[in-house]
Amino acid sequence: MSQQVKVWDAPTRLFHWTLVILFGAMWYCAEQGGEWLQYHIYCGVALASLLVFRLIWGLVGSQTARFSNFVRGPRAVARYVRGELPEHEAPGHNPLGGWMVVAMLLALCAQVLTGLFSADVDSYLYDGPLAKHIGGMAESVTGAHKLLFNGLLGLVALHIAAIVVYRVVKKQNLVRPMLTGYKRMAGEKPRLHFSHGALALAALLLSAGGLYFALLR
User: Fold this and answer.
1) Which residue, among 7, 2, 214, has the nearest Cα to 112 in the 3D structure?
2) Which is a GO BP term held by this UniProt record (predicted)?
3) Within 10 A of 172 (CB to CB), how many other CB atoms are there?
């Protein structure tokens, strides 16, 4: 018999959907070019703050949000692939999904980091906040920034494809739990720990404030 189980806290869900919005906005602004690059930079700094928050939340946040909970070794991955891993042992991200999250976070960090050092090679009016510190190397970093974006799009496509496969083949809706926080699970109900929202707010203020003073002040 299946039951509704809360698996995702509000901070994790808000992180996920804010990330989606910022990623789309950055892509749009970059494609427009010109004065839109200023908004591209603003979105990039906001995304950097969001990523720092997620790294902090991955250490001190709710159980299903912690890296220690979903970054699993090859044995757990093999058990999941063979269908031998009970759902209550991986109530949030499954072992494969956990590694996808790690890959996405690393790719996004690399994308944001190169963006901070990139130069506006057309007008040099909208360089990244840290481009001035590396001089002529900023143009090379810009090339890497654009190249990394193509790889990031590949990961996004893979992520979406996995969601579709789970919905069609395994009859599992991965989107709804990330909207509502609740997942329908069969078998034993996991006992999960959720951190207080005040801790998430403190982590967000720390990440946003730190990056503001480091980059924009």
Assistant:
1) 214
2) respiratory electron transport chain
3) 16
Instruction: Please check whether residue 70 is in contact with residue 90, taking contact to mean a CB–CB distance below 8 angstroms.
Output: yes
List, as one string, the DSSP characters of 171-199: ---SHHHHHHSEEEEESSPP------HHH
Q: Residue 87's Cα: distance from chain center in Å?
A: 23
Give the Cβ contact number of residue 115 at 10 Å.
Answer: 28
Residue with tokens 């007008």: 123
Write out pLDDT tens, residues 33-81: 899 999 999 999 999 999 999 999 999 999 999 999 999 999 999 999 8
The greatest distance separating any two alpha carbons of the chain, rounded to the nearest whole angstrom, comes to: 63
Q: Which pTM value belongs to this model? A: 0.92
Q: How far apart (Å, rounded) are the C-alpha atoms in residues 160 and 113?
A: 24
- At the top level of CATH, the class of 2-216 is mainly alpha
pLDDT of residue 124: 76
How far apart are the C-alpha atoms of 213 and 216, rounded to whole Å? 6
Helix (H) or strand (E) holding 50: helix 36-60
Rg (alpha carbons) of the chain, rounded to whole number:
19
Query: What's the rounded mean pLDDT across residues 149-165?
Result: 94
Please give the Cα distance from 44 to 26 (Å, whole number).
7
The pLDDT of 146-175, averaged and rounded, is: 93
SS (H, E, C) 89-153: HCCCCCHHHHHHHHHHHHHHHHHHHHHHCCCCCCCCCCCCCCHHHCCCHHHHHHHHHHHHHHHHH
Tell me, what's the pLDDT at 65? 97
In terms of phi and psi (left: phi > 0; alpha: psi -120 to 50; beta: otherwise), the region of 24 is alpha
